[in-house]
Amino acid sequence: MATVTHNGGSRVTTRQKCYDVLRRMLICGQIAPGSRLPEIEWSERLDVHRGAVREAMVLLEHDGLLRAGEKGGFFAPLLGDFEIEEIIEARSVLETGALKLIAQRKLAKEAFQPMLELCETMQRLHDADIELGFCEADFMFHQALVALSGNSRLIQMHSHSAQLIFNLSVVDTLDVIRQKRSATLTDHREIAGMVVSGDIPSATMRLENHLETACKEFL
């Protein structure tokens, strides 16, 4: 197993690796709600020192993506652990704020390519009925949108803000799931197109409606 040296940079890097992996799995519903995350087990799975896993889990608790048990340990949250409306409101403020900054930057067309490519990735995953992959690409689209702002503080705030965990919604039929995926993809394509064309007011309105729809699905 790889060990963490006393070097501060190595410890931060290892902790960040644990944080990134666990956060992505939690957000994309790859860890069952309510399940415990044993530190020893995850240190072995991630091939890192137990201390780095513990530090990452403390950060994830701070972000609202894990909850601490009364008798110790960390657990994946249940739907009731989230204030859905507050999360959506926070995301709306951050992401629409990013749009305002994007408008000021006068970016070259090439800068939008990662965001546009994620739409194509979502299309392929939707066609293949790969739900978890689609959810992860959905999350990455919003990250790519905020990254275009060029504001490192805003990007960090968005990255560490509590996100919706996709598999906490009510159980839907496959047809309903496909309809929701299709609607999400349509929203993303429209938002991306408006951003690329410089129509920030329309992109802002579309993004707000998109997030409001996501909120209603969880309430």
UniProtKB/TrEMBL annotation:
<dbReference type="GO" id="GO:0003677">
    <property type="term" value="F:DNA binding"/>
</dbReference>
<dbReference type="InterPro" id="IPR036390">
    <property type="entry name" value="WH_DNA-bd_sf"/>
</dbReference>
<dbReference type="InterPro" id="IPR000524">
    <property type="entry name" value="Tscrpt_reg_HTH_GntR"/>
</dbReference>
<dbReference type="InterPro" id="IPR008920">
    <property type="entry name" value="TF_FadR/GntR_C"/>
</dbReference>
<dbReference type="InterPro" id="IPR011711">
    <property type="entry name" value="GntR_C"/>
</dbReference>
<dbReference type="Pfam" id="PF00392">
    <property type="entry name" value="GntR"/>
</dbReference>
<keyword id="KW-0804">Transcription</keyword>
<keyword id="KW-0238">DNA-binding</keyword>
<feature type="domain" description="HTH gntR-type">
    <location>
        <begin position="12"/>
        <end position="79"/>
    </location>
</feature>
<dbReference type="InterPro" id="IPR036388">
    <property type="entry name" value="WH-like_DNA-bd_sf"/>
</dbReference>
<protein>
    <recommendedName>
        <fullName>HTH gntR-type domain-containing protein</fullName>
    </recommendedName>
</protein>
<dbReference type="GO" id="GO:0003700">
    <property type="term" value="F:DNA-binding transcription factor activity"/>
</dbReference>
<dbReference type="Pfam" id="PF07729">
    <property type="entry name" value="FCD"/>
</dbReference>
<keyword id="KW-0805">Transcription regulation</keyword>
